[in-house]
Amino acid sequence: MILSSCDFCERKNVFIREHFDKWGDHILNQCFYGCDDPKNIPNEPEETLIIKSVEKVHSILCYSTEWRITLSVNGRSWWTRLQLLNGETESSVTKMIQKCRNTKEVERLNKHIKFD
């Protein structure tokens, strides 16, 4: 789940499910629990995030990159690995993290495509 705008009801900052075509291209967003469900609205505390490091761990051509992110969260050290698409750069990953309000939003940046 990630936070974004729903393409059906046009609400902003709700949990959405991303829909992709068979080639992995993003088509549209839909409220994760359905457009009228209040569970789509996040109710999470804000945390103080300070970026310590953003390191590229692995990349597959220009398609997928894996990153190791180290943060200071409310004075405590925290790290995670993110898999991102479209060959993101260090500066673009840093900008995405700076927009996050807490660690759950950072973890929601992961992009995994499942092919049927």
Task: Sum up the structure in keywords.
116 residues; 41% strand; mainly beta; three-stranded antiparallel beta sheet
Largest sheet: 3 strands, antiparallel
The strands making up the biggest β-sheet line up spatially as 1-2-3
Share of residues in strands: 35-45%
SS elements, strand count: 6
Q: What is the alpha-carbon Rg in Å?
A: 15 Å
Mean pLDDT: 87
Distance between the termini: 19 Å
Instruction: Note poorly predicted spans.
Output: none
| Count of alpha/pi helices | 2
- Share of helical residues: 10-25%
Work out the count of structural domains: 2
Shape: flat
Alpha-beta classification: mainly beta
**N-to-C series of helices and strands:** EEEEEEHH
Describe this structure in words.
- With 116 residues, this protein is mainly β.
- It has 2 domains: 1-43, no CATH class; 44-116, no CATH class.
- Helix content is 12%, strand content 41%.
- The chain is built from 2 helices and 6 strands.
- The chain has helices at residues 90-98, 103-107, and strands at residues 2-4, 14-20, 26-31, 49-60, 64-73, 76-85.
- The strands form 2 sheets. Strands 1-2-3 form a 3-stranded antiparallel β-sheet, with no helix packed on it. The protein has a 3-stranded antiparallel β-sheet with strand order 4-5-6.
- The chain is flat.
- The two termini are 19 Å apart.
- The model has no long low-confidence stretch (mean pLDDT 87).
